[in-house]
Amino acid sequence: MFTGIVLHYLLKELNLKSQPKINDVVRSKDRVSIVLKNHFITANLSKRAPYICFSRLKGQGYYSSLFKGKKILKIEQLGLDRILIVALDENLKIVFEIFGRRSDCLFLKNDGILNSFKGIKKEKYEIPSKPEGLNLLQASKEEIVDSIINKKKIVGLTVGFINSLRLKGVDFVNAFAEKDFGPTVYDDILSPYILPEGKKFSKMNEAIIYYYEEKSREEEKKKKKEIIEKQLERQILKREEILGRLNKPEDISLYKLKGNALLTYRQKIDASEDKIFLDYLGEKLEIEIDPALSVMENAKKYFELFKKKKRRAESEEIRKEKIKNELEILRKKREKLENTEDLTEFKEFYKEREEESEEETFPSKFRVFSTSNDSKVLVGKNTESNHELTFSFARPYDIFLHVKNAPGSHTILRVKDKNKFPPIEDIHEAAYYAAKFSKLKHSKSVPVSYTQKRYVRGAKGLAKGAVILEKEKVIYVNPLG
């Protein structure tokens, strides 16, 4: 688990030149990364396993125009808390808060919140209150041991970490309290200090990456095992139900008995009725007959039905034995699954998903649509949203669209391959949305200008939301149909 003391030692490994410039801020799923020339400060903000490390992240530009080229003035941890503040010039800040399910990344200007990864709505950033308890860096070995054993608060550690360490035993508690630097991963513990057991690392960053990669693999294996268990249970239940039905066979001898009864009493039977009652071999029989057929023909039908049912019963007996064998195999597999970590022989119960490109997520402040080619179209909702979409979110090679000479929403066609211009049908569909969310939405033929976002600029004196386009082209669309 990620603790404040881990962050403390991680930052000691960040050797930056004086006031380095940010190349970009990128995001991918639950991760955000500050990209420098030779360094990456990456935060995983997932609910299950949030953490910070210095690994490279391949993702899409995120607030690129706002932070690109800005100098980093200071990178600091707030006390021994799980808060990392990156202070930039022009009174900008990027704040990472690693608080379990509440983990977030906030973008600030003059301490006002421009936006946050999780969509926080507050206007001003409030620094969390300073945690109380024993300061881990300043405390003696005896104080640390006492606090861990007696479940007291320790600044720099989480309650979960303290509980895990205490449960490992006195040797682990004493070793940790020595505070000998040596990043160690053991079971569910990520420690900056040497422990009696576990995998040792020379750097905190290496230990963090290993710990969470292992955690991710274990989580994936757990999910996979759960899927296999469900598939096994489903198949076992299905066969048990079938077997239950097959174990209640129909009494087919009655069909033969009715046929013999009809033959025996054929001279006395009134075949004009559709149902007759006979006493035969001590059995009181209710026999349905077809008045259009003779008694002999009705008897023949019962004999044929008996043969058909007999063949079916024989076939079901074979099927029953087959299902019994399958059921035995499935139950053995279920028992084996409970006691193994090797899932290779259970492939038939787990359909491997093809690797998919990470699907990009978008802030709720933009309308999001898809073209028939599955390209994303983003549409601003108001002046602020328009400005942010165009100048903070759109990439240089994305396509910017706007109705010509009329008020309307900024529209961005997300381009899949920056080296290829998108298909004209995608541009046409994106233009439809640009027209639909404009003052010309009731017109049958609306001109929509489009160009790459790199050719869109604002200018002093222009109203917010107004832009100047270069190298624009125009396409006509009908927002009504």
Layout of strands and helices, then pairs:
Elements: H1 4-11, E1 24-28, E2 31-35, E3 40-44, E4 51-53, E5 60-61, H2 64-67, E6 72-77, E7 83-88, E8 92-97, E9 104-109, E10 112-116, E11 134-135, H3 141-149, E12 154-155, H4 159-168, H5 170-177, E13 181-186, E14 189-193, E15 199-200, H6 204-246, H7 253-264, E16 275-280, E17 283-288, H8 295-338, E18 366-370, E19 376-380, H9 383-393, E20 399-403, E21 411-413, H10 424-436, E22 446-452, E23 456-457, E24 468-469, E25 473-477
Parallel strand pairs: 11-12
Antiparallel strand pairs: 1-2, 1-5, 2-3, 3-4, 6-7, 7-8, 8-9, 9-10, 13-14, 13-15, 16-17, 18-19, 19-21, 20-21, 20-22, 22-25, 23-24
Helix pairs in contact: 4-5, 6-8, 7-8
